[in-house]
Give the backbone structure.
Amino acid sequence: MIKDGLIQPEKIDGIPIKVSIIQPRGIPNVRTMKPMTPKGITVHNTGNTSPAAGALAHGQYLQKLEDKSEEYKSWHITVSHDRIVQHLPLTEQGYHAGDGKNGYGNMHTIGIEIAENKNYETAEKNTIKLIVTLMRYYGFEASALKPHRYYSHAEKLCPRRILLSEENWQEKWEGFLRQRILSNTSHYNSMGSVPDWGKKTIEKLIAKGYLMGDGDTLGLTLDMIRTFVIHDRAGLYD
Ligand SMILES: [Zn+2]
């Protein structure tokens, strides 16, 4: 799924992925060139509602920052309503967590920005699919997933669309983990998330009407998929 820090598939769960790594220009203000073994994910909102401020535009923005060597700022991936764009290898540290060059967030976590330019709900749903995929790949627990606010020395309320207010951001984050992340890490809810070895069987069950295939609510566990595949091999669904 990930090779040399680069996301390999062209799509995750139906969402197109563009790997467009920022070209290093010498001063390591965007491309830190510092190696990283990811231990978690930090979630952000771009805070930019301008319609043009999608995932591709944020990549161009980062390249300009690197070209001018101005600001020390970077993150790994931006997700918008229509795509996922990777800017940094996942094996390299970024500057996104606001906890300094030796902070845990910057040194050890993958920074993901959710774009706010168009259809925020879809951008957030796409991000959840990406996060769930990365959590499965790296074997992260839910506790490895943090909002920028958690690390930020400046106490920046980010991702603002999820945390909503300074008063109870911890509760809002816990709710997000419970309702949007854990429900998806324990279950395979969309066809795209079903492991390749189970896809044919699940497709067959949907086609035959044994399994309702609408939306993102398949509600399958790994054990269920395994069992269905064994039954399918035994010819039970033919
Ligand atoms: Zn942030």
Observations:
- The radius of gyration is 19 Å.
- Strands lie at 2-3, 6-7, 11-12, 15-19, 40-45, 77-79, 84-86, 109-114, 145-147.
- The helical segments are 55-68, 104-108, 120-138, 148-151, 160-163, 169-185, 196-207, 222-233.
- The chain has a mean pLDDT of 95.
